[in-house]
Design a protein that fits this description.
The complex is a heterodimer of chains A (252) and B (458).
Chain A lengths: L1 E10 L2 E11 L4 E5 L6 H9 L4 E10 L2 E2 L5 H6 L2 E4 L6 E5 H15 L7 H14 L10 E2 L5 H15 L3 E5 L7 H14 L5 E5 L13 E6 L2 E6 L1 H10 L2 H10 L1
Parallel strand pairs in A: 3-10, 3-11, 6-9, 9-10
Antiparallel strand pairs in A: 1-2, 1-4, 4-5, 7-8, 11-12
Chain B lengths: L6 H20 L6 H16 L17 H5 L12 H4 L10 E6 L2 E2 L6 H5 L3 E4 H6 L4 H14 L4 H9 L4 E5 L9 E7 L7 E2 L2 E6 L4 E10 L7 E11 L4 E8 L5 E11 L4 E8 L4 E10 L5 E10 L4 E10 L5 E10 L4 E10 L7 E10 L5 E10 L5 E9 L3 H8 L5 H17 L5 H16 L11
Parallel strand pairs in B: 1-5, 4-7, 5-8, 6-9, 7-9, 8-10, 9-11, 10-12, 11-13, 12-14, 13-15, 14-16, 15-17, 16-18, 17-19, 18-20
Antiparallel strand pairs in B: 1-2, 3-4
Helix pairs in contact in B: 1-2, 2-7, 2-8, 7-8, 9-10
Classes of the chains: A alpha/beta (252), B alpha/beta (458).
Chain lengths: 252, 458
């Protein structure tokens, strides 16, 4: 589904990604871990299409299309979803109206049947229940006055209603207590199918106790320096990142 | 007689004086003696004492009326319209008393004046002045003041040319059950008219009234005309008035709105000004607080596109203690539109415990558009809470990115953000059908922006 080949990216002249290679297939959950500054968020931003990053080398192919050629909203309509690390508050935009707009925009593009008002509301409410959000949040402005946990749950809710094929979770667990974490993880797990894929970017292993990854990759200095299964995450939890850094220094 | 007029001013005032002479001739035979004298006083003052402003007047520094004054205007003609003409201008689902004015003249057939008259006094001003009713004194008081003492030339002009002003009096202790919708339609054919709507509205003690004034046009969209409207509101003790002015005049129309309010003890006046149309728009809004315990809310939205010029001037005169005033005006300017806001607040020495807050926020979304915002607070009492704030900026890029990341196109996301910016005011509109229509009118206006328009982002 997603093939990243030798991706190099920089921001304001500073090199962040230095040759990422990654293959993600449908039905898989890939975890990307790494110390601060390794390029985790940059990878998420580049995949989502955020402006400001210059791709100096490499390619990203998504569902047979050149992902880098698509604008941020085109990617979203094609089924790429990013759950932000710091979701922004947008006063004056009601959550309900916003969701209605985006759900049908994406469905229309993917030639799925657009939902009418009644179907829409019941669909959103069903998903809201899954992430344990109260109905009243629908009438509030987007993320306004939401706690950190509520904002992250709202991200998962949006993911649930937009039904993406590729979801990138950018440190969704940061700032969450264990209960919020479980709700978020549960939401993600409920949405896993054989047709979609997840890239879970996280600093700590904790989230991966609940979202069991098929693959774990360690990002360091803008490169994937080690890949393994969920046990790699446990090893990192136990030993930290230093041993990886040493390994990298020895080999280079 | 006219030896004080400078050469450039002579033309514009002369034009109006000429027009008045023509119009005066048509009045022969009418019994409107008092009203006629008032008009003559007004036109004489316009030729001798009162002057149209230039850029040198501080209050008109950013608004040039030369173009408005250069036009040779005619008195508007009486025009008939049908219910079908009217329907796009009504609020769907709103049960209101309708007063329809076409070119400043009341259309009795389409109005519910008789029905409204059963509840409150509704009378045309000329009749008010002729008949010996209790309201005669009030009507005369204001008209005479406008004619002989008023310094605002546009009010003086209106006094001279108004053909059928309306006097509305709500007696004490009455909550008027439905809003009064004063629907003004400009319908001039191939000639530039000066339309002079005139209203005096008195609301008695403990009474409640909602007035919705709307301004539309049926003529050719490119037709030049000038709507110069005057409203005087008097709120007696503990009266509550909600006053909407929704303006959607033609793209070549000049619009000057003079709204003056007097508030007695404990009264509440809330004003909602929505400016969508017009080439040159100037709103003068003031409230004089004549006793303590009053509440004054001034809300406004202005949307400027193309070469529109929209100027809002407000004034609250706090002369007594324990009064609250609150102002919030928001606007969006694109293309080469220009916006102006000047909010004056006077807090006199006896006005202790005054709360006066003012905010003006504008989005300027193109290089050619501009906004001038000036707060002007003069505070002479020492135990008060007053604040003012103004921002002029662009759309939040992060917010735009977030929405696009959820599948909204750039254009859709910009539209959503612009609507969101104005929600702070539209959500204050308590009457659902009015709010829904205003939101729709705003969205429709956004759609007029060309596809290729690249709106500035932060």
């Amino acid at each position: 589904m997603l093939t990243i080949k030798n991706l190099h990216a920089e921001i304001e002249g500073k090199k962040i990604l230095n040759g990422i290679n990654l293959q993600v297939n449908a039905g898989e959950v890939h975890a990307i871990m790494g110390p601060n500054g390794s390029g985790k968020s940059t990878l998420a931003h580049v995949l989502a299409g955020r402006e400001g990053y210059e791709i100096t080398e490499g390619s990203v192919s998504y569902m047979g299309k050149d992902l880098l050629e698509l604008s941020v909203d085109e990617r979203a309509r094609e089924g790429v979803f990013q759950a932000f690390q710091y979701p922004i508050e947008i006063p004056g935009v009601s959550t309900a109206n916003f969701l209605k707009h985006t759900i049908n925009a994406v469905r229309k593009h993917q030639q799925k049947k657009e939902l009418n008002a009644k179907e829409m509301l019941s669909f959103i409410k069903k998903m809201a229940k899954m992430v344990e959000m109260e109905d009243n949040f629908l009438s509030r402005s987007l993320n306004q006055g939401f706690s950190g946990g509520e904002k992250k749950r709202n991200e998962i809710l949006q993911m649930a209603v937009l039904e993406p094929r590729l979801a990138v979770l950018d440190e969704t667990d940061s700032g969450l207590d264990i209960d919020a974490l479980k709700i978020v993880a549960n939401g993600v797990n409920q949405l896993r199918t054989n047709d979609n894929a997840f890239i879970v970017i996280t600093h700590y292993q904790r989230l991966l106790d609940y979202i069991i990854p098929d693959f774990v990759h360690v990002l360091y200095n803008g490169r994937i320096v080690k890949s393994g299964d969920k046990n790699l995450a446990l090893k990192l939890e136990e030993k930290g990142y230093d041993w990886i850094k040493e390994e990298v220094e020895i080999t280079s | 007689m006219t030896n004080q007029i400078t050469p450039d001013k002579k033309d514009s005032r002369e034009k109006f004086i000429e027009l008045f002479r023509l119009y005066e001739n048509t009045l022969n035979g009418q019994k409107d003696y008092v009203g006629h004298t008032i008009k003559k006083t007004a036109i004489r003052r316009l030729s001798q004492e009162v002057d149209f402003p230039t850029r040198r007047n501080e209050d008109w520094k950013y608004t040039n009326v030369a173009e408005l004054l250069q036009v040779q205007y005619q008195q508007p003609k009486l025009v008939d319209i049908t219910i079908a003409d009217l329907s796009p201008f009504l609020f769907e689902g709103l049960d209101a008393y309708l007063l329809v004015f076409v070119n400043g003249q009341l259309n009795k057939t389409l109005s519910s004046k008789d029905e409204l008259s059963k509840k409150i006094l509704v009378q045309d001003i000329p009749s008010c002045l002729q008949e010996d009713g209790p309201e005669k004194a009030t009507a005369f008081e204001y008209l005479n003041k406008w004619a002989s003492k008023e310094k605002n030339p546009f009010i003086v002009l209106n006094t001279a040319f108004a053909q059928n002003g309306i006097f509305i009096y709500v007696p004490d202790g009455l909550v008027v059950d439905r809003p009064v919708h004063i629907l003004n339609i400009a319908f001039t054919k191939d000639e530039a008219s000066v339309i002079s709507p005139q209203k005096i509205i008195v609301v008695g003690e403990n009474s409640k009234l909602t007035v919705i004034e709307t301004y539309h046009y049926l003529n050719n969209p490119q037709q030049t005309y000038f709507t110069n409207t005057v409203s005087q509101l008097v709120l007696k003790r503990n009266a509550v008035v909600e006053h909407y002015r929704i303006q959607d005049e033609g793209e070549n129309a000049f619009f000057v709105n003079n709204t003056e309010v007097e508030q007695m003890r404990d009264s509440t006046y809330s004003s909602y000004v929505i400016d969508l149309g017009g080439k040159l728009v100037r709103n003068n809004l003031s409230s004089i607080l004549k006793d303590s315990g009053t509440t004054t809310n001034f809300y406004g939205i202005y949307l400027g596109m193309d070469k529109q010029h929209i100027d809002n001037q407000t004034f609250v005169d706090h002369a007594y203690p324990n009064c609250n005033s609150n102002e919030l005006y928001k606007g969006i300017l694109t293309d080469n539109a220009k916006g102006v806001f000047n909010g004056k607040i006077m807090v006199r020495p006896d006005a202790q415990k005054t709360n006066a807050f003012q905010k003006n926020h504008s989005l300027v979304l193109s290089k050619g558009a501009s906004m001038n915002s000036k707060p002007q607070l003069e505070i002479f009492a020492d135990d008060v809470k007053c604040s003012h704030g103004a921002t002029i900026g662009q759309l939040n890029e992060e917010a735009l990115y977030y929405m696009r990341s959820r599948g909204l196109s750039k254009k859709e996301a910009i539209s959503v953000l612009k609507q969101a910016f104005l929600t702070e005011i539209t959500e204050l509109i308590k009457i659902d059908p009015v709010r829904v229509k205003v939101e729709q009118m705003i969205v429709d206006k956004f759609k007029q922006l060309p596809e290729t328009n690249n709106e500035l982002l932060n």
